[in-house]
Structure formats: structure tokens, C-alpha cells
Amino acid sequence: MGSDELAAFRRDIAEQRRPLPRGNEDATLVVRGADLEWYTPPGTNPSHLAPVLGTPIRTFELFMQEIPPGVASDMQQHNHEAVHCVLAGSGYSEIGDRTVEWGAGDFVCVPPLEWHRHYNGSDTEPVRMLLVENTRLLAALGLNYRASAGHVSWSDHRNSLVDRDGDRA
After folding, report:
1. Gyration radius of the chain's alpha carbons
2. Where does the Cupin type-2 domain start and stop, copy by copy (predicted)?
3. Mean pLDDT across 3-16
4. Which residues, in sequence order, are bridge partners of residue 119?
5. pLDDT tens for each residue of 33-80
6. Of 23, 35, 106, 123, which shows the fewest CB atoms inside 10 Å?
């Protein structure tokens, strides 16, 4: 390594040691649940989502999610990690080849790139979850990805992956 390369390397290391910029000093430190704005995503996901916006958080996102009674979310895949903290209701999730049951107080962990769907197990009460996703960190690195297969059954989706790829994805 020549002296110019060494000097450039040392500059890079010094740059990496600089602290991240401070958050917006006017950012909201408390987001009131009553102030969340709910929407239904376009397409085939019948869930209702409310992003928690205006905070100084830079590496992850927070959402409230509500799944109506007797309904399932769309089948989706993403390369970020996601944790769903179940605040109210009960149901189950299909995550990859596994089916897991959950209820209020549980945490549902979705690993990167696993096709998954969440089901509300009640015909009368909605499910409400707090979602924590490391999407902002991946987006800052240019690595965020999300796909939806829509509202297909797990077996139909798995068969479509086999048909497309020649073996199980």
C-alpha cells in the first residue's frame, strides 16, 4: 500500500468515526396513538396500517397494524427483519413452512426473505399489532426490498414457486 492509499485509508477510517448527524431537534418524542393516520395499503392486503411518523428514529420503522375479524394479511416477503408485538387479539401466522399461533403479549418474529402471512383467528374482534422493522437502515444502504404475492393460499403460492423455479424456493 503506497502512502497515498494509506492516507486515503486513514481519511476513510476517520470519517467512519465521526458521529452520525443528530436527529431533528423538532422531531416528535411522543407520538399519540390518537394522532396516528390509518390507511389500507393498495392491492390485496386488507390490513389497516398506521406508520409512526415524525420521530428522530433513523434505522427502523414503527407501524400499528390492524387485521379485521376473520381476515388474513397478504402473502409477502421482504429482506428486512420484522417483529410483530401482538397488542390485542389472537391468531396465527404462516412463516415459511411453519405455522405459529400467537395472542396478546406475544412477539411474532419474521426472518428476512421468508414468505409469510398473518391470520386473525376471531370472527368478531380485530387483531392489533405493533410492527418494528429495520427497513430504514436497509433503505439507507440501498438494500430494502418487499414483494407481495397477494391474497393467495399458502399451498398455491408454494406451487407457483416450484413451477417458476423448478424446485422449492
Report:
1. 20
2. 64-132
3. 75
4. 72, 92
5. 999 999 888 777 889 999 999 888 888 999 999 999 999 998 999 999
6. 123
d(CA 132, CA 109): 10
Answer yes or no: is pLDDT of 16 > 70: no
pLDDT at 52: 93
| Chain-centre distance for alpha carbon 5 | 40
Instruction: Write down the pTM of the prediction.
Output: 0.76
Residue 102 lies in a domain: yes
The 8 Å CB, 24+ separation contacts for 23-27 are 23/56, 23/57, 23/58, 24/56, 27/54, 27/55, 27/56
For cell 430504514, the residue is: 136
Q: CATH number of the domain at 154, please.
A: 2.60.120.10
Spatial contact of 157 and 111, defined as CB atoms under 8 Å apart: no
Considering its fold, how many domains does the chain have in total? 1
Question: Which DSSP state fits 139?
Answer: H
Per-residue cell: 59: 434505522
Q: Classify residue 152: in a domain, yes or no.
A: yes
Domain with 64, as residue range(s), is: 38-164
Residue 25 in this model has a pLDDT that exceeds 50: yes
